[in-house]
Amino acid sequence: MTHEADDVNEAIAAELRLMDPDVRSSRTEAARLLDPEFTEVGASGRRHTYEDTVAGLPEEPGSSADGPRYEASEITGVLLAPGLVHLTYETRFDGRRARRSSLWRRRDGETGWRMYYHQGTPVPPDTA
Length: 128
What we know:
Elements: H1 3-18, H2 21-24, H3 27-33, E1 34-41, E2 47-49, H4 50-56, E3 71-81, E4 84-93, E5 96-106, E6 113-123
Parallel strand pairs: 1-6
Antiparallel strand pairs: 1-2, 3-4, 4-5, 5-6
């Protein structure tokens, strides 16, 4: 496996960890996977910061072990530059679909890959 493929696979693994209810419900675990400069543009068009996300994630849907879970499919990634991976994929959650895009950044070997940016776009029910 190439170094590029390793980087993409590590970013994918980190993305999947962020969908795990055990990680989502733990501010400490979520904070380890989010870059301090993290931003997200939600489906509502609202901008969310690192602080907003770490504080609110445990209460967000998908954070309960006995509730619905995010199901990811068609995850692909590309190394844009050293230390920067772009992922795209689709999720199903509680009967709804979304297309998602994330940028993962690795600044050093100690912190590993951290999500720098995320955007999710709802997919209308009648869309293929």
